[in-house]
Amino acid sequence: MTHRDDFRAYFAADIRRAEAPVVEAAPTDAVMRRAAWAVADVARTVVRAQEVIGDGGGHVYGASAAALIGAGDNGGDGLYALADLARSGMAVHAVLLSPDRAHPRALDACRRAGGRVHEPADPDALEQLLRRLRPAVALDAIVGLGASGPPREMAGHAAGVLEELGTPVVAVDIPSGIDPDTGVRHPGAIRPTATVTFGLFRRAHLLASTDCGALELAEIGIGAPAADDGRPAEMLTSIGTATAGELWPVPDVSDNKYSGGVVAIRAGSQRYPGAAVLASHAAVMSTSSMVRYVGPCRDQVLADRPEIVASSVVTNAGRAQAWVSGPGMGTGPETAQELAWILSQDVPVVLDADALRVLAEHPSILRRRDAPLVLTPHAGEFDALAQTFAPAQAGLLAGDRAGAVRGLVAELDSRGVNATVLLKGRITLIDDGRSAFAQDAGTSWSATPGSGDVLAGMIGAILAAREGPGALADVEVPRAVAVAQVVHSVAARLAAEEFGRPGSPIGASDLLGAIGEAVAKVRAVAG
Ligand SMILES: NC(=O)C1=CN([C@@H]2O[C@H](COP(=O)(O)OP(=O)(O)OC[C@H]3O[C@@H](n4cnc5c(N)ncnc54)[C@H](O)[C@@H]3O)[C@@H](O)[C@H]2O)[C@@H](O)CC1
């Protein structure tokens, strides 16, 4: 299912399959020239945006541009872009990193437009050249879809020099040094001000969105890609605020306090009563339906939110359409028993924090289950889970996060568990083995203690609502989880940037205060 402000990204191989017939049908290099024109356009904007002391803005005419040109078609894009910039009156310089393999027709076009061509012999020569040229803008046309591994030899040297010079960089297609499929950032990767891509987003644009600068998608006439067996290609999605607003549960005239989905929350301990309060309060603020609390922090939870129905043991909690377990509840032996009981319930279950540690230590409590299980680890908890359930994935986080999440989900699936894993981070990954989402929070204000407890409560409330007939009913679990994550991020931004002192740190309690406003905001965007 897709919605109107979904961004979709694809594997390089699927993009190439979709691109091939379009490139073949067009005149020689026409698609590449179209791509190059979009790159040049963004480069001109970057130059214009530069402050020039005394006259209030950068001028394109007479400014200089340099492009680092690699061995493939990405370099071809860069050379045609330079030709375009030369026609705008810029002094352009092609810096060939693999002179014998530079795209011949594009190189010729660049030369004919007046471009100077340089062939630095080694990293020192490259550094001296860039220092001498001091271009107003640099194009990173080293490598794009064909990238593998860290930028090689001289290419690996360029990023540091450009950063030191403070040169704004426009990356062609994908910043060199970022893996197109995994988004892994290699040492020596270029740090662009903007990235211009063509036709379809690559997975790296979502998985490493914070490394791409401003992202621009230029149309080159490519349709949705198919996999090699003809089925729709696998996509990685990022949903926006409008989608979250469309799907957020809203009570209608027939609803009562149960019908919108009751969520039960097992959280907190004598040591961590705050986690119980945060998770339960977040659930209260997310939907209009009942929230049940189970655990030893009844007094604190009720003092904070008297509308919560509290009990002390899970078996007496009463009916619920979803369970949340874990925040601050400890990892003692009795928690494993409680968790086993919760996991035996035929309703969606969200496990966070301590529950994930307990699960990693007592894997036998995880039996076959059809009802959704949502695991919400941060990196450390993910590693503990991976070591238990998918040893081959353990330690992968530093590299391919999306691949590691998919691997854990697959291992759980092979045990008959219908799991969705949400891996926390500035870019949160959510995957159930069929639908995968990468959600950039936009800021890192929510990286604060208790923020995860709030998120767990919100996800629980949303999954309870999904059991009913509302807008979420037909929505796949990872998308519903992403909806909660979007509103959590919006609440963090509101709390940190719009309420109180803009740009000030927040605590998790401030997030609670902003959930209602965040829901109103995303619903307003949805219209
Ligand atoms: N097919 C087309 O006509 C179009 C292609 N496009 C461009 O073409 C690019 C893909 O072109 P290619 O398939 O030639 O691939 P690339 O140009 O991305 O890279 C291939 C070359 O880079 C070298 N390389 C790989 N990894 C490297 C590393 N880590 N460090 C240094 N060099 C490395 C390889 O030896 C290879 O020669 C896209 O990213 C896009 O920029 C666009 O112009 C759209 C149209």
UniProtKB/TrEMBL annotation:
Keyword Transmembrane set for record: no
Required cofactor(s): K(+); Mg(2+)
Record-level Gene Ontology MF annotations: ADP-dependent NAD(P)H-hydrate dehydratase activity; ATP binding; metal ion binding; NAD(P)HX epimerase activity
Pfam families: Carb_kinase (PF01256), YjeF_N (PF03853)
Cited CDD domains: YXKO-related
GO BP term (any one): nicotinamide nucleotide metabolic process
Keyword annotations of the record: ATP-binding, Isomerase, Lyase, Metal-binding, Multifunctional enzyme, NAD, NADP, Nucleotide-binding, Potassium
Ranges for domain YjeF C-terminal: 240-522
EC number(s) given by UniProt: 4.2.1.136
Binding-site positions, (6S)-NADPHX: A275, G328, H378, D453
Catalytic reaction list: (6R)-NADHX = (6S)-NADHX; (6S)-NADPHX + ADP = AMP + phosphate + NADPH + H(+); (6S)-NADHX + ADP = AMP + phosphate + NADH + H(+); (6R)-NADPHX = (6S)-NADPHX
Domain YjeF N-terminal: 15-228
Residues binding AMP: K424, G425, R426, I427, T428, G452
Annotated cofactor note: Binds 1 potassium ion per subunit.
Isomerase found in the keyword field: yes
Quaternary structure, from the entry: Homotetramer.
Homology family: In the N-terminal section; belongs to the NnrE/AIBP family. Belongs to the NnrD/CARKD family.
Cited function: Catalyzes the dehydration of the S-form of NAD(P)HX at the expense of ADP, which is converted to AMP. Together with NAD(P)HX epimerase, which catalyzes the epimerization of the S- and R-forms, the enzyme allows the repair of both epimers of NAD(P)HX, a damaged form of NAD(P)H that is a result of enzymatic or heat-dependent hydration. Bifunctional enzyme that catalyzes the epimerization of the S- and R-forms of NAD(P)HX and the dehydration of the S-form of NAD(P)HX at the expense of ADP, which is converted to AMP. This allows the repair of both epimers of NAD(P)HX, a damaged form of NAD(P)H that is a result of enzymatic or heat-dependent hydration.
Protein name (database record): ADP-dependent (S)-NAD(P)H-hydrate dehydratase
Native organism: Dietzia timorensis
Organism lineage string: Bacteria, Bacillati, Actinomycetota, Actinomycetes, Mycobacteriales
Gene that encodes the chain: nnrD
